[in-house]
Amino acid sequence: MNYLGIDLGTTNSVACTVKNGKYAYINFRNKELLPSAMLYKDGKISIGSIAKRKATIYPTNYISSSKTYMGSNEKKWQIEDRTFTPTDVATEILHVIHDEAVNFFGNNDEIETVITTPAYFSSSQNAATAEAGKRAGFKVKQILAEPVAAAIAYAFDDLKTNEKIYVVDLGGGTFDVTLLEVSSNNEYRTLMKDGDNHLGGDDFDIAIYELMLSHIRQDIGVDLSTEESSELTPEAYSRARQKLLQEAERVKCVLSDAEEDDVSIMNLFPYRDGNYDFDMTLTRAAFMQAASKLVRHVENTIRDSLHNVGRSVDEVNRVILVGGSANMPFIREYVEEFFHKKPYSDKDLSKLVAMGAALRADGTRGDTITLHDIIAHSLGIEIVGDRFSPILIRGREYPCEEMKIYTTSHDYQEVVSIDVYEGEDENQIKNNYYYGGFQVDGIEKALEGIPKIEVTFSFDESCILHVKAKDRKTGVSGAKDLAIHFGH
Ligand code: AMP
């Protein structure tokens, strides 16, 4: 058996194995990062840097950041004669990883893999990821949360005492913060998780893109904010947009190290009798100003995350930064100021998650790791007066089960609705997230407050919540299973 850890990233993927106690990475065209991008043209699929390169010529044949839609039944890309789901795109990316891994291992043995996903992924999103792994030819041992993988990469070999590790993970499309307690016998216990599943490096690219658009507007009065306002052909518009977005990402990364950079793109779009050549100087200060809302959101999430669960900064022994976007200097600066300690960054941020996944996947050492995870937000039902009654309280380790007794709110009520929500606001249910519900018909005919209805919530290893409601007297019951997302 061969063992492989895979960080299936929004922007880049990395595959790593542990060989003779050392990390070894699968190479993709001589690079250790495989862009998580796909292009379909004339019946042929291209993955990675080739897809990215062709994207400016065939922007409508190009799919990037598909992980953001993983597990969604609605999202599909129609390109030429084919339709691709997010799972299909993940499968194609994993296929390339599988092919290169077979070359790397140099044998035909099966490859057992641990694939990482964001901490907030729901059970259905994790299941879709595992399915993609299987379809690509892997034996999927486990789907592992990215921050836990990062903590494993840090702590596995060099932890002598118990420590609390705070992980800030800002990738291409996702933002998670996690507090873990790690003991020297390789037990990893998640104590808190929070974040925003709609925030990532892509949003910072957009901030730069907007600056570029206002530069063009000021320069020649052309407004590229929509295809219509640009007055370009659809082809010319999407090509220009794609080129600007790629440049925006490039310059964003440069500004992590430099205070300013020049952007020039020849022949950006047809203009008057020729083409428009784009030329602009961007400073880090202007970028930070344009992205100030995002920056503040990241900072506030970090600050509030500990406070929300009654933990203090002093408990944290080390802070780890993960994800490509954590290279942006403002994160390091904020972490240092808030935690009064420098974040750990002696390891390559873009490989950390894959390293942890490789350790967990490893046949001999991976099984010495024990993982404990928690429910990120309280789960409960709606009660009279638009209020919320939590049944499983956030921070509880799962698998777990809890039963509470409810009753009717008017005389001779025979039907009750069980509506399941997630959140912390007990007074105003509308501030919580609705998951689904069902009705139970046949409740004991009695005055209000007399019937006893048992509502049981059990939360299993795969983040599936099983909800059951039963009238004690009549025995009638109803049930529903719900896949829970973390991160609302
Ligand atoms: P990941 O999902 O962890 O691969 O992170 C990818 C994201 O990190 C993309 O949005 C990249 O543009 C961003 N990124 C990578 N390197 C840097 C850098 N040096 N500075 C800022 N952002 C970066």
Description of the molecule:
The protein has 488 residues and is an alpha+beta fold. Helix content is 28%, strand content 35%. It has eleven helices and 27 strands. Strands 1, 2, 3, 4, 10 and 11 form a six-stranded mixed beta sheet that branches. It has a six-stranded mixed beta sheet with strand order 17-12-13-14-18-21, with helices on both faces. The chain has a four-stranded antiparallel beta sheet with strand order 20-19-23-24, with no helix packed on it. The mean pLDDT is 93. Adenosine monophosphate (AMP) binds next to helix 5 and helix 7. The site of adenosine monophosphate has 18 residues, from helix 5 and helix 7.
Which helices and strands occur, and which strands form pairs?
Layout (H helix, E strand, L loop, with lengths): L1 E7 L3 E8 L2 E4 L8 E2 L1 E5 L2 E4 L1 H6 L7 E3 L12 E3 L2 E3 L1 H20 L5 E7 L5 H13 L3 E7 H10 L7 E8 L4 E9 L3 E10 L4 H20 L6 H4 L3 H21 L5 E12 L2 E10 H7 L1 H17 L9 E5 L6 H11 L12 H10 L8 E5 L4 E5 L3 E6 L4 E2 L1 E7 L8 E8 L10 E9 L11 E7 L4 E8 L5 E7 L5
Parallel strand pairs: 1-10, 10-11, 12-17, 14-18
Antiparallel strand pairs: 1-2, 2-3, 2-4, 5-6, 5-7, 8-9, 12-13, 13-14, 15-16, 18-21, 19-20, 19-23, 22-25, 23-24, 25-26, 26-27
Helix pairs in contact: 2-3, 4-11, 5-7, 9-10
Adenosine monophosphate binds next to helix 5 and helix 7.
Radius of gyration: 25 Å
Span between termini: 39 Å
Let me know the average pLDDT: 93
Class based on secondary structure composition and strand pairing = alpha+beta
Strand content: 35-45%
How much helix, percentage-wise, in residues?
A: 25-40%
